[in-house]
Amino acid sequence: MNVNINVYWTEERVERAAKLWSDGLSAAAIAERLGGVSRNAVIGKAYRHPEWFPPRGGVAPRIERSLRAKPAVSQPKAQKSPFRADNVRKPARLPDVPISVPVRPSGAFRHRDFPIGGAASVPFAKLSNFQCSWPLTDFEDADTGDMPCCGRQRRGGIAPDSAYCAEHAAISRGAA
Question: If both were cysteines, with which of 51, 62, 122, 152 could 165 make a disulfide (CB 3.0 to 4.6 Å apart)?
Answer without folding.
Answer: 152
